[in-house]
Write a structure and sequence with these properties.
This protein has seven helices and 17 strands. With 388 residues, it is α/β, with parallel strands linked by helices. The strands form three sheets. A six-stranded antiparallel β-barrel has the order 12-15-14-13-16-17. It has a five-stranded parallel β-sheet with strand order 3-2-1-4-7, with helices on both faces. The protein is globular and about 70 Å long.
């Protein structure tokens, strides 16, 4: 059954207002339902955060849009400055992973550490009963579920896919825990994006026709190589084909990810795809065959796993090799898989259908029907298990 929240004017909801349509409609719906709604904008990025530049970061415009929405809804508005926390928990992780030659997903870390971490804690400290976001996901209380809940006490909450399968954002929230889920609301999770747009217009929200953001969490659209080069030094090397013949030069293996096609900047019979990154000899190995078998992974190893309901492959029912579904990147088609323990904290994921261009540092997220069970960080790519 859906999670039941107290629905009266004495229940205070702190809404994370990004300035976008989804969080604005979330606030409008909660206000319409009779909650005491507060609007908060998180300033996690400035014009010169930690000495880093991102001229495309639209935080000032986003803050103004959020403020205008709150004025229209006649709800209080407050800006919270989390620049230091964002630097410590997201940016440092972002750069460290690239320095290790991995491809991180900062949005996942941003959600678990900032939106549902420091923001949740601050909102509760300021007197809120719950927080709400504009994510396209749902929450459901576990009642008679076949999974034994092992995380925390009291009620237990499942994270479900959003009704709009094209907008479902459960992939980005797989690291949430029971405390975070039990104090979170997702008002647009039962809606489709067109319906949210329709409601935004119905509520006469000033940003009803604002385009969706597609950039990195709180940074916006960036030239990734230019952004990373502010902290990571170039380390030039050779670009070689599958036979080892030099066909170009790279500025550093850090800038590339497995399967990458754009930005390689070499001529010849292309397009070329990144096949491997040889850190020992500092060579970027490419192929012009997107169906090269080395680009397909039949299994991977993961670590740093989070299981939303405390379920792990070492307890029932996953211990029996139950077939689940998973995806290796956002909006990737779901594929069937099984999970087994390798050693403490390390799991092997076997795919029924080999997956193309699996990148270390990215996340694999597991599902049982609509329920998001959790996920982990990929240690190996292209079928190669990496010892850590």
């Amino acid at each position: 059954m859906p999670k039941v929240y107290p629905n009266n004017k004495n229940t205070t909801i702190a809404v994370a207002m990004s300035g976008g349509v989804d969080s604005s409609v979330a606030a409008a719906l909660l206000k319409e339902q009779g909650y005491n709604v507060l609007g908060f904008f998180m300033k996690n990025w400035g014009d010169d955060t930690c000495g880093l530049k991102s001229s495309d970061c639209p935080w000032m415009q986003d803050r103004e849009d959020a403020m205008r929405v709150c004025a229209k809804l006649d709800i209080p508005f407050k800006t919270l400055d989390f620049e230091k926390e964002y630097k410590d928990m997201v940016l440092d992780y972002f750069f460290k992973e690239y320095e290790l030659g991995r491809t991180p997903n900062p949005d996942i870390m941003c959600n678990s550490q900032i939106k549902f971490g420091v923001f949740l804690d601050k909102a509760l400290e300021l007197g809120a009963d719950y927080i709400a976001t504009g994510h396209y996901v749902r929450a459901r209380e576990v009642q008679g579920a076949r999974y034994e809940v092992r995380d925390g006490e009291g009620e237990s909450v499942e994270l479900l896919k959003g009704v709009d399968k094209n907008k479902d954002q459960s992939y980005f929230l797989y690291r949430l825990n029971q405390k975070q889920l039990s104090k979170s609301m997702f008002p647009v999770g039962d809606l489709t994006k067109p319906k949210v747009r329709e409601l935004a217009k119905k509520f006469s929200l000033p940003n009803y026709d604002k385009k969706d953001s597609q950039g990195v969490c709180f940074i916006g659209h960036i030239d990734l190589q230019k952004f990373l080069s502010q902290k990571i030094k170039e380390k030039p090397g050779d670009i070689v084909d599958e036979k080892g013949a030099k066909i170009g030069e790279h500025k550093g293996l850090f800038w590339y990810t497995i399967g990458q096609r754009k930005g390689i900047n070499i001529g010849g019979i292309g397009p070329f795809y990144v096949l491997q990154k040889d850190f020992k000899d500092n060579k970027l190995i490419v192929t012009n065959n997107p169906k090269n078998e080395q680009l397909y992974a039949s299994f991977i190893e993961i670590s740093d796993a989070n299981w939303i309901l405390g379920i792990t492959p070492s307890n029932s029912p996953l211990a029996g090799g139950e077939v689940l579904e998973c995806r290796i990147r956002y909006r990737e088609k779901l594929t069937k898989c099984t999970i087994t323990d390798k050693k403490e904290g390390i799991y092997q994921v076997d795919f029924k259908t080999p997956q193309w261009a699996v990148a270390s540092g990215q996340s694999v997220v597991f599902y049982d029907g609509d329920s998001c069970l959790g996920g982990g960080i990929i240690n190996g790519y292209a079928g190669v298990a990496v010892e850590i």
